Amino acid sequence: MSTAELLVARLADRGETVATAESMTGGAVCAALVAVPGASAVVRGGVVAYTLEMKQRLLGLDASLIERAGVVSEQVATAMAAAARTLTGATFGIATTGVAGPDGHGGREAGTVCLAVAGPRGDQVATVHLPGDRDAVRTGAVEHALAMLRAAMAGDVTGL
Q1: Among candidates 15, 115, 92, which has minimal Cα distance to 46?
Q2: Please, which residues have CB within 8 angstroms of residue 92's CB and are 6 or more apart in sequence?
Q3: pTM here?
Q4: Torsion-angle region of residue 40: left (phi > 0), alpha (psi -120 to 50) or beta?
Q5: Can you list the pairs that 78-81 forms with residues at least 24 positions away whose Cβ atoms lie under 8 Å?
Q6: What residues does 123 pair with on adjacent strands?
Q7: What does each C-alpha distance from 64 to 7, 12, 41, 67, 75 come to in angstroms?
Q8: What is the pLDDT of residue 108?
């Protein structure tokens, strides 16, 4: 059973829901979840806010937070996850922001990914550095995001 299948089954069993706010993964976290039969019972929705403007307009992120912390930061990932949760009424919100490459962005090197899960037991946030080309970084970010949701659901908010 894949991680996405396990998560959808556990969310359904617990009567819980999830929503995503994604930047560098472009909706791939949400796509991994909705690929699972029965996902409509637990996936509330997803927002792809690829640009700075869309993070502000769609997710309501404060410009001063983005300016202070940087668009690729744990603070922005946490705010994105909280926004996904609030906007959709989901039990859990998952967010990804990062630099898939091939070039760096905003002073962060390619392969830097900030992820967050907002949930009823608090926030879980991590920064990971993933090797490989653009596709490998994006794929790894999805895997890490799903693993973080799994840990948050288990009550482990200590990180990756």
Answers
A1: 92
A2: 16, 17, 18, 19, 85, 117, 118, 119, 149, 152, 153
A3: 0.95
A4: alpha
A5: 78/116, 78/118, 78/123, 78/125, 80/21, 80/23, 80/49, 80/55, 80/116, 81/21, 81/116, 81/117, 81/118, 81/123
A6: 118
A7: 34, 38, 36, 5, 12
A8: 94
Find the Cα–Cα–Cα–Cα dihedral 137, 142, 143, 147, rounded to 10°.
Answer: 130
Amino acid at 146: L
Length of the chain: 160
pLDDT for 15 beyond 50 = yes
